[in-house]
Design goal:
single chain; about 90 residues; alpha+beta; 4-stranded mixed β-sheet; 2 helices; 4 strands; about 30% helix; Auxin-induced protein; SAUR_fam
């Protein structure tokens, strides 16, 4: 039996303004260019990801400029974190 490890999905340009998010995933916006990523909701339980959520709350409150969840870190930092979370 094979196991599938959830990972981030790079949002396609055509879906970047749409609501095409698979069940069990969440769209977030990261970096200066507000690049959209689709991540598994299981990441929300991870302490390292919760720290990013706390930073987002401090910086943006609950009024996110993009209408979605904005993560206040660089794309590189975000990709490093999600690659670590995907390997757990």
């Amino acid at each position: 039996m094979a196991f599938r490890i959830p990972g981030i999905r790079k949002a396609s340009l055509s879906a970047s303004k749409g609501t095409n998010v698979p069940k069990g995933y969440l769209a977030v916006y990261v970096g200066d260019k507000m690049r959209r990523f689709v991540i598994p909701v299981c990441y929300l339980n991870q302490p390292s990801f919760q720290e990013l959520l706390n930073q987002a709350e401090e910086e943006f409150g609950y009024d996110h400029p993009t209408g979605g969840l904005t993560i206040p870190c660089s794309e590189d930092e975000f990709l490093n974190l999600t690659s670590l979370l995907g390997g757990q």
